[in-house]
Specification:
endopeptidase fold (from Nostoc punctiforme); single chain; alpha+beta; 7 strands; 23% strand
């Protein structure tokens, strides 16, 4: 049995689009419009477009972190490429994160979320058994299947394309939110 705890994309976007109250306030959820617009772009069919957007060769590297960085930058939100946007042992206020293409580097971006993710938050997961490898994407909602809680994640390089996939919530290493 599946129990979904999410809204249709159009409903979530409508609620988030009305967030700001003035032209000076940045709508920190408008980056989701960009992320959604890339759904189904794959390495096989859109390699050139992805590589141009990501500023890396999508056929040569694991590009989930590059996708998140590019989506944030498109909305003028500081990314791991922005000097001073991360807080880690090796970070300085005058330099970008030393590993902006590593998904786990997002554990040092934004602010930590302790009470569960909200639409658009970044969720970081392990990948394989290496403590450096990981995966990062945007939270879209939750689903329960057979008593197991999953996060629906919109991310890049999920089966070599931008897509929405389920990941076990219990496997999340961290959840991060943009600082307003």
């Amino acid at each position: 049995m599946k129990l979904y705890m999410t809204l249709p994309i159009s409903s979530m976007m409508a609620g988030c689009m009305a967030f700001g109250s003035s032209d000076d306030e940045r709508n920190y959820y408008n980056y989701m419009n960009t992320a959604i617009s890339y759904i189904d772009y794959s390495e096989a069919t859109h390699a050139n477009e992805l590589s141009e957007f990501l500023n890396v060769d999508a056929l040569e590297i694991a590009w989930c972190a590059a996708f998140v960085n590019s989506v944030l930058e498109e909305a003028d939100i500081p990314s791991l490429n922005t000097p001073g946007a991360s807080n880690c042992l090796y970070c300085t206020t005058s330099d970008p994160h030393p590993y902006p293409l590593a998904a786990r580097s997002f554990l040092h971006w934004g602010m930590p979320v302790k009470n569960g993710p909200q639409y658009g938050d970044l969720v970081i997961f392990p990948r394989g058994y290496n403590t450096f490898h990981g995966h990062v994407g945007f939270y879209m909602g939750s689903v329960y299947e057979d008593g197991i809680h999953y996060y629906r994640i919109l991310g890049g390089n999920q089966n070599k394309k931008v897509s929405i996939r389920k990941y076990r919530a219990s496997h999340a290493l961290g959840i991060r939110r943009a600082i307003r």
